[in-house]
Each structure stands twice: as structure tokens, then as C-alpha cells.
Description:
358 residues, mainly alpha, 3-stranded antiparallel beta sheet, 3-stranded mixed beta sheet, 12 helices, 64% helix, 8% strand, disordered N terminus, disordered C terminus
Amino acid sequence: METTLCPILSLPTSQDLTYHCVFQKFKGNGYGKYPDSSRSGSGPRMSGNQSLCTRFTLVAFSSLAELQPVLFVLVLAIYLFTVGGNLIIISLIRVTPALHTPMYFFLVNLSFLEMCYITSVVPQMLVHLLVETKTISVGGCAAQMYVFSILGLTECCLLAAMAYDRFIAICHPLHYTLLMGPPVCLKLAAASWTTGVVVEAAQITWIFTLPFCGTGEIQHFFCDIMPVVKLACVDTSRNETVMFVLAVLFIMSPCFLILCSYARILVTIVRIPSAAGRRKAFSTCSSHILVVSLFYGTALFTYLQPKTAHTPASDKATALMYTVVTPALNPVIYTLRNKEVKEAFQRLTHRSPLSQVA
């Protein structure tokens, strides 16, 4: 294989974006989008010379040039609020013995995950809102996709574990301490993280064995799976089929477990004789139900819709929901709608030196 570097070419856009490429001459068979007329009966293969990308250009919000400073301030404020809110939740649970229960153990995991989740996308997006050349190396793009995808699948599994915790607490309260002891909680959390790492590491590694060619423009503000796969200069139908199967298996399976848990919870709550008892039982689940609805609503809309339904504008709008808005809402949901967390926060603030001086 002969390789010669090409110069950086300027794209004909108003913002003078650039891309980097490598010209390579391939010998032997390959699989691509371009038919080879020299071989009858052979499948599609790479043509003689193809421009392989070594860097990608993230189109991001280039069409909203005048609004980018406003978007920068808004997204930065949301990011700081999200990280600060989740740090407060983790610290509050850490210093409050009354919150050392399985439900709050999983909430600590979820809060830590949400901080990493938003940090895998937002800092780079903030930088790109301030610069004209919005490029990222293929390696950097792969790293971002690894982190983002692993955390996304891990959150699916953690939410299922939290639903199972609520199921045991409401449907089998007398056996709760036995069935949800510390070893069980640790195993459920470890299984969630392990599933996310193993499944997504394998999938993303497979994606980045594909050759990427053309201009290298990603119609997105971060390296999401589908916009990157679209840049491959080979037939990706097999990859897309596998990705869809994995999405159904590892996104819908936790969702099915959550639905089954809450179906049983609902039946149990309805059978509680007193209205006060029903309200108390439901209040322990309401925060989790809201978080699940936000997370799965955007995830199902994004990853289970047909390929033809994807457009750059809709993908960006949906991605903003699950990368920026949803992580910011989780601390609000778990503080404003959770009586125990609110009471612990009030006790902590009343004991602080500043409140005593006041």
C-alpha cells in the first residue's frame, strides 16, 4: 500500500473550515460503496484512490454563527449547574448516615455517571462554540465515543437496578434488608458498569475499524455513533444492523425490567388500604420515574428510529436534550422531589458556620 500525504484543503464555506486526508492506493479486494467493473460477480469494493480522513470536522452550530456566544454562556451555565448539583448530592449522601441506604448508593453512582456523561461532550462543544475551525482527530473522536457510549449504556443498567430496588422496597418490605444488602448492591452496580464497558467497547472498536473518507464533515456537535458511521466509505449495512440489535437488546431489556418492576409496584400500591400509605409509597418512586422517562424518551427516539428519519437538525436537537438538559434536570428532580434529601440538605445548611453566624 502506497501512502502519500495530501495538503490541507479548504472547504468552500463561509467559515473556511478545513479537513485533513490521506490518499492511499489499495491493492487486493476490499469492500466499499463503489463497484469494481473489473471483477464480474464481485461485491462492492474500494476504488483505486480514496481520500481517508485523519481528522474530522464537527459542523456543530456553524449555521448559527451570531448565536454561538449566547449558546456558549447558556451551555456553560447548565454545565456548571449540573456538575455542582451532582457534587452536592454525592457529598450530602456521604456525610448523612440516614441516607446510607441502597437507593442512595445507586443515586451516588448515577450522579457520578451524569457528571462524567456531560463532561465527555460539553467542554469540547464549548471550545468549538468559540473557534472557527472545529476539528477533532479520529483518535479523539473514538475516545469521546467510547466514554459517551459506555456511560450511556451503564445508565440504562443503573436505572434498571434502581427500579429493582424500589420493587423490593415496596413489594417485599420485610425482606428488603436481606435482598438488598451491601453485597447485592455492589454486584448490581458492578454488573451495570461491566455491561456498559464490555458491550460498548466492542461496538465502538468495530466502528473504528471502518475506513472514513470524503470531506470528514460530521453533521453534529460531538462524535455520536450514527453521524460518524455515515462517513464510512464502505458498506455499513451490517454495522447498522448490529447496532440496532444491540440497541434493542441492551436498551430495551433494562427498559422492560423497569416496566415490569413498576407494574408490580403499581399493583402493590393500589392494594394499600390508606391513601396516606399509597402517597408515601408512590413518593419514593416518583423521582426515579421522572428520570427514567426523560432518559428513555430521548434514547428511544434517537437510536430506535429508522435511518431515513434521521436529519442533522433533529439529531442535534435530540442530542442537546440527552447530553445537556437531562443531566441538568436530574439533580433538580432528586432534590426538589425527594423529602429525605431536602431534609438532609436543610439540616446540613443549618449546622454550617455561616448559618450560625447569621
